[in-house]
Amino acid sequence: MSRRSTPIRAVLFDAAGTLLHVHPSVGEIYAEEAARFGTDVSAAAAGAAFRSAWRALRPYADGTTPFHTSDAIERAWWRGLVERVFAEACGPGAFRGQFDEFFGALYVRFEQPSVWRLFDDVLPALDALRERGVPIAVASNWDSRLPRLMDAMGIAGRFRFVLTSAEAGVSKPAPEIFHQAAARLATPPPQVLHVGDSVEDDVAGAERAGLRGLHLVRTFGAAVGAGRIRSLVEVLRIVDESAR
User: Fold this and answer.
1) What is the residue-wise DSSP string for the chain?
2) Does 127 lie in the same domain as 234?
3) Is the domain of 188 the same as that of 77?
4) What b/e string do you get for 42-51 counting C-beta neighbours within 10 Å, with b at 16 or more?
5) Same domain, yes or no: 193 and 101
6) Contact 143, 74 (CB under 8 A)
């Protein structure tokens, strides 16, 4: 029996870009918080610098992770990224000696539910899977704050568990994080579907680990087909079809 014809018994979800997103945007939040400390930067410049710093510092391709189960290590990694963002967006001398205070406020702000929103299709999809008795969980490249954040947003209880790269000690697309998740679901990897918005981290990573990968692309007009959906509600169809 091929992987595609194997019934799906459990579903894993990525977090950022799949279940939730920053609101209004990373750049706007960085700019708002910086203004409180007397530093003027546009949301567009902060956002562009963040994306540049994230690409440069995000060492996921080989499965390593900057996030560990140590708050001090995680804070230090984020501090380095934020320093890089403002060095690019503002140049040297921003914050006039207040950077540590600014970073502390910014770090805490991203732990707050007010900064995050669920996509509109999330709760309908999760509720329908629960009605079908399908176990669901989260596997995400995130630091140790994610379970607390999802609990504060009132969504953590819908999942069997929330597995972060910080807890797993390895990040997507490495197979180990997927294997850990499948083991905790007590489900063979070929019967687990992983849904996410990254082709490499979520789809290719899952499939190399023996799971099924499903690419979520919410962009209007994006082509859909085998292995690609535009809404999480479409997961239900795929789960149902796999059982026939």
Assistant:
1) --GGGSPP-EEEE-SBTTTEEESS-HHHHHHHHHHHTT----HHHHHHHHHHHHHHH---TTS--S--S-HHHHHHHHHHHHHHHHHHHH-TTTTTT-HHHHHHHHHHHTTSGGGEEE-TTHHHHHHHHHHTT--EEEEES--TTHHHHHHHTT-GGGSS-EEEHHHHSS-TTSHHHHHHHHHHHT--GGGEEEEES-IIIIIIHHHHTTSEEEEE--STT---BTTEESSTTHHHHHHHHHT-
2) yes
3) no
4) ebebbbebbe
5) no
6) yes
In angstroms, the CA 188 to CA 82 distance is 40
Residue range of the domain that includes 83? 24-114
* Per-run averaged pLDDT (10 residues), the chain, 244 residues: 76 98 97 96 97 82 71 90 95 87 96 97 97 97 94 97 93 94 98 96 96 92 75 96 89
Q: Are residues 123 and 237 in the same domain?
A: yes
CATH number, position 195: 3.40.50.1000
Give residue 1's pLDDT: 43
Same domain, 13 and 98: no
Last residue of a domain, one of 114, 143, 178: 114
Residue 222 pLDDT: 59
pTM comes to 0.92
Residues 85 and 131 placed together within one structural domain of the fold: no
